[in-house]
Structure formats: structure tokens, C-alpha cells
Amino acid sequence: MLAHRTLALAGLQPEDVDLQYILAPNMLVAFANGALDAGILGEPQVAAAVDQGFGARWRGMDELFGSFQNTLIVYGPTMATQRQDTGRRFMVGYLRGLRHHIDAFDGGQDMDAVIAILTKHTSIKDPATYKRMVLPEFDPNAQMNIESVREQMQWFVANGFIPNPVALEDYFDSSYLDYVVGVLGRR
Questions:
Q1: Are 117 and 179 part of one and the same domain?
Q2: Contact assessment for residue 112 and residue 119, using Cβ atoms and an 8 Å cutoff
Q3: Burial code of 133-143, b = ≥16 C-beta within 10 A, e = fewer?
Q4: Where would I find the H helices in 52-134?
Q5: Which of 40, 65, 90 is the last residue of a domain?
Q6: What is the pLDDT of residues 118-174, one digit of tens each?
Q7: Beta-carbon neighbour count of residue 32 at 10 Å?
Q8: Which DSSP letter does residue 135 get?
């Protein structure tokens, strides 16, 4: 969808280019060996492509399309029906961590401490990489942009990737976020 929408901004159709679907781990190799001219990458792949001299950051999806919801937290049926307290406690921890992340990367608060935690618990071990990455924006209250999800769904329906739209409201449960904002307050 993002590739198609980006091409449309340039007045191009998918048939105007040799559009290939490449798994994220293979994209850096394809850039390095010249098999790929452009691609949609996430971090830390963007920083790696720039650092290694075979890529340049052009635009982020937010710069092209505005506020864009591309990740979700999904609870399974057991969490939603039998383990709601666990779901609420997870969400409190998630929002605390998210706010530390926002404070560090958007506000410079305790950035080195947050980066130390990230280098310890993620596959990105070089602290300097975090300072070169362009990280996505997050809502400090973890509010969903349901309209963005609806627009994406409509695109997938219109382009034949899924047969019918669904009532998104049937799948979004804000009670966990309502609980955590009640505990931690709204920002």
C-alpha cells in the first residue's frame, strides 16, 4: 500500500516501475548489490543503509501521508476475557516505557539511560546508532488513529487485497487505555 501510494504521489502507476516485494532483511543486500533503486525501509535499516553508503533517506511516511497508524497492540481472546488484570498491568508498563522513550528521543531526558536499556535488550548494540535513527512519533497516551487504519483498510479493499471492509469499532477496545490513563494521567 505504501509503495503504491508513494508512486501515486509522483504520478506513477505500479506498472510504470519494476515493483518487487522484498522481505526487510533482504533489502539492505539488494541496495548494496545495486539490485534495488528505491525501497520503503524502517529503522535501523535506514540508518544502516546511510551509514554504509548505499542508501539515502528521502522522506518518512509521516512526511508523505501525515499521521499514520502502522502498529497495533493485539490481545488474544484469553487476555480479553479471562486475564483482563494482566492486560491492564501490561498496558501500564507499556505506557510508562513509551513515555520514557518519548521523553528521551523527543525531549532529550535520560537519553543515555534509555539507550543503555535498548542496547542491552535489543539487537541494536551500538548506542550511536540510536542517535542517527529517525524514530516514529508516538502518542504519549497511546491513542489509536482509527481513521488511519480505516483508510488503509479501504485501500486494501479497493485494490482487491481483502474482499470486504470490517467494522473496526468491533475490534478496538479502549478500556485498557482508559484504565492506564486513569492510573498514569493524560499527557
A1: yes
A2: no
A3: beeeebebebe
A4: 61-65, 77-81, 84-107, 111-121, 127-132
A5: 65
A6: 999 999 999 999 999 988 888 999 998 999 999 999 999 999 999 999 999 888 888
A7: 15
A8: P
Q: Which three cell numbers stand for residue 157?
A: 479493499
The structure's pTM equals: 0.83
Q: What is the pLDDT of residues 45-71, one digit of tens each?
A: 999 999 999 999 999 888 888 888 888
**Amino acid in the structure at residue 151:** E
Looking at the fold, whether 96 and 178 belong to one and the same domain comes out as yes
Domain of 123, in residue numbers: 77-145+167-184
CA distance 147 to 49: 32
Q: Match 535513527 to its residue by C-alpha cell.
A: 133
Last residue of a domain, one of 65, 86, 102: 65
Element (H, E) at 75: none
- Write down the residue that cell numbers 524514530 correspond to: 135
CA proximity to 13, closest of 2, 4, 22, 24: 4
